[in-house]
Amino acid sequence: MSDRTWHSTSTAADYADCHPVTVLKACEAEELHGVQRKARGRWRIHVDCLDAWIKGQRCEHQKAGAA
Predict the structure, then answer these.
(1) What distance separates the 2 farthest-apart alpha carbons in the chain?
(2) What's the confidence (pLDDT) of residue 60?
(3) Of 2, 12, 38, 57, which has the fewest beta carbons less than 10 angstroms from its beta carbon?
(4) pTM score, whole prediction
């Protein structure tokens, strides 16, 4: 288990055992909740959101946005 709270697409991919492009595309498609500080900036993914995505669930941020 990782001690990191926030991941880049690369470290998120290592954590999820997938390719970084898979994580990037999931963020762009809003399947995985990620944050960018500016347009076309680096994605940051919270570990709780990443865990939910790995399990095929929606994270708390996505649930709150859908309400």
Answers:
(1) 31
(2) 87
(3) 38
(4) 0.86
